[in-house]
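HUMAN:
Sorry, I am quite new to this. Are you able to go through these amino acid letters and fold codes? The numbers rather puzzle me.
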Amino acid sequence: MVKLFISSLLGLASLQGVMAAPKVYPEVIPGPGMPSLAELNVTSAELYQMGTPEELRARAQELDKRFTGKCGPAEAAYTNVNDIIACYNYLRNLGTKSCVAAENTVMCTAGKAHVYGSALNGGTSSYCRDVAHGVLWVINSCTRPNQSCAGAQAAYGNGNLIATAVNVKW
């Protein structure tokens, strides 16, 4: 009787792993003219699972003071930080590809967040990894205890290109 009970418990425990549904992540959608996820050989799930690299967290505060980063600007602008992190990882993976911005140029949408670039004076561009660096500042400086986040910061080394991470409805 005891053997049958233990066998049943082991059988149920093994079924639990089989029956667990895989985690579904929102789709990461590159902005117009940006490389696709397939071109980068990366999936939306991978971008969500990457998180933010620890070694870059401290460096995110080392931005040029040509622009003062801002959080918000309003309650409706806030969205889930994990969606912003997925866009950060997308932009970081683009490396030295040029991210071109005019006025409110969408660079990435993930879940309920989008990251867009704006040029303060006409058009501008920066390496996408440098735009990601500005997004990382927003993640580190503007994430609230409830894991919502919104804000804007200049791309690393370019005070004319402002990376903004906000709710898609903002």
